[in-house]
């Protein structure tokens, strides 16, 4: 193979690595935290993330739960962070970690509201970002 051919092959490998890095990320530790912030302050929230631990958690108003994952590889838009959120009269799903949206997050703090989940950043220059339920 010529030098030009080797250079092009190397470039393709490099491009594939960069594209792969954008769609998946391996974490030493990822913390996902959810707080019950439902608007009227009297609704209990049940959260279940079956691919994290297979358990459901009942969160009273203001209550929270966190999952600590070590060495988890995630794929864009997929498990293990797809969770269900249920309260009286409502049931929703939301993916609490999507690399393209949350790549700056090693501790993702979410507040579950009736209108959708809001992520709070621990940085002074980052605003709270709210999403719609899936």
From TrEMBL:
- The primary location reported for this protein is secreted
Q: Does the keyword ATP-binding apply?
A: no
Localization terms from the record: Secreted
Q: Transmembrane stretches, by residue range?
A: none
Q: Give the highest taxon in the source lineage.
A: Eukaryota
* Protein name, entry field: S-protein homolog
* GO biological process, any: rejection of self pollen
**Signal sequence: where?**
1-28
Which key words are in the record? Secreted, Self-incompatibility, Signal
Glycoprotein keyword on record: no
Q: Which family does it belong to?
A: Belongs to the plant self-incompatibility (S1) protein family.
Q: Which InterPro entries match?
A: Self-incomp_S1 (IPR010264)
One GO cellular component term? extracellular region
């Amino acid at each position: 193979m010529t030098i030009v051919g080797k250079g092009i092959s190397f470039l393709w490998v490099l491009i594939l690595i960069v594209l792969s890095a954008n769609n998946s990320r391996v974490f030493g530790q990822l913390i996902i935290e959810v707080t019950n912030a439902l608007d009227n302050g009297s609704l209990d929230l049940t959260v279940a993330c079956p691919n994290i631990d297979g358990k459901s958690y009942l969160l009273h108003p203001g209550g929270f739960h966190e999952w600590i994952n070590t060495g988890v590889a995630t794929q864009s838009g997929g498990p293990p962070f797809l969770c269900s959120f249920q309260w009286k009269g409502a049931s929703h799903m939301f993916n609490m970690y999507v690399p393209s949206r949350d790549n700056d997050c090693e501790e993702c703090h979410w507040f579950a509201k009736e209108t959708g989940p809001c992520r709070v950043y621990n940085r002074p220059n980052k605003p709270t970002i709210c999403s719609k339920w899936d």
